[in-house]
Design goal:
The protein has 9 helices and 10 strands. It is α/β, with parallel strands linked by helices. The protein has an 8-stranded mixed sheet, sandwiched between helices.
């Protein structure tokens, strides 16, 4: 059945091999899809090439984890002058601040859709057992989802991406006297995207997104999204009161460096979701299914 152009496709889901106690939600980059991102990510090598278990897949490394890879719908791309799968319209990856007005509609719609996905998932597992993240434009979208949330998650993974509206967010963090506003980033993002204020009850009961552990990785010679843009995102998050851990890798790819970055990512997930992991099995098997979150 064909998808309506106004509806986001069903996410690509890999269900846990054991009891479901945690969830990882990862967003693809512009021009890709959830299942393509999953296929590429799960081809990444874990461990040393000399390790007989090095080819174990991430789902086998974390058997209690559900993996959700949402897909964006196609929308008109000003850059390519045609319908294109992207979370929001982006004119320039060299200077993402160009034509920020064109980014608003798609970013707002995507954040609302993804926030609803997280809210649904939080009825099955605790928010403290959910990791959110993405690569490239998927990271740029996911970080706004995180800042718009009224809950603290298990972790956030940002790969080779940037922070839309970074300058405005940094300005929103401080008042006119230079004092830091605790909710400045959240208030700006939610207002910009038309999400309304977070209630005081929600703030008190769920905790702040700023307590979410944040892993940021970027290739030093990335020719698609400059490493400087990734660093700017890390600085902006720190100014907002979060505690991102910034990793760089000596590579020119717009992708994870193997095996170093993959191993760092596995270690991060281990720390965030200790109950979801186990040593990789010699004969990895996992179930995958599109939709049916």
């Amino acid at each position: 059945m064909s998808q309506s152009p106004q509806i986001f496709p069903e996410p690509f889901v890999i269900h846990p091999r054991a009891a479901h106690i945690s969830t990882v939600i990862l967003l693809h980059g512009r021009g890709s899809s959830g299942n393509e991102f999953a296929d590429d990510l799960f081809e990444c090598q874990i461990g040393s090439p000399s390790d007989p278990l090095a080819k174990a897949l991430l789902p086998d490394r974390f058997p209690n984890c559900k993996w959700i890879f949402p897909s964006t719908k196609k929308r008109y791309s000003t850059t390519f002058q045609e319908e294109w799968p992207e979370w929001f319209d982006t004119v320039s990856l060299t200077d993402p601040s160009q034509r920020e007005d064109l980014q608003m509609e798609g970013l707002s719609e995507s954040v609302l859709t993804l926030k609803a996905l997280i809210d649904r998932e939080a009825t099955q597992v605790k928010p403290s057992n959910i990791i959110l993240g993405g690569i490239s434009q998927g990271y740029a979208t996911a970080i706004h989802v995180l800042m718009a949330l009224d809950m603290q998650l298990a972790g956030f993974v940002g790969l080779s991406g940037w922070m839309p509206f970074a300058k405005q967010i940094k300005e929103a963090v401080f008042d006119k006297t230079g004092n830091q506003r605790a909710s400045g980033a959240t208030d700006f993002v939610r207002s910009k995207l038309g999400l309304g204020d977070v209630s005081m009850v929600a703030r008190a009961s769920q905790g702040s997104w700023k307590g979410t552990p944040i892993f940021l990785g970027h290739e030093l010679h990335d020719e698609v999204v400059s490493c400087d843009l990734g660093k700017e995102a890390a600085v902006t998050l720190a100014a907002a009161g979060a505690n991102p851990v910034w990793h760089t890798y000596d590579s020119g790819e717009h992708w994870l460096k193997e095996p170093e970055e993959v191993e760092d990512l596995v270690e991060f997930i281990d720390q965030c979701l200790p109950q979801a992991s186990q040593e990789p099995l010699e004969c990895p098997t996992h179930m995958k299914e599109e939709g049916k979150v």
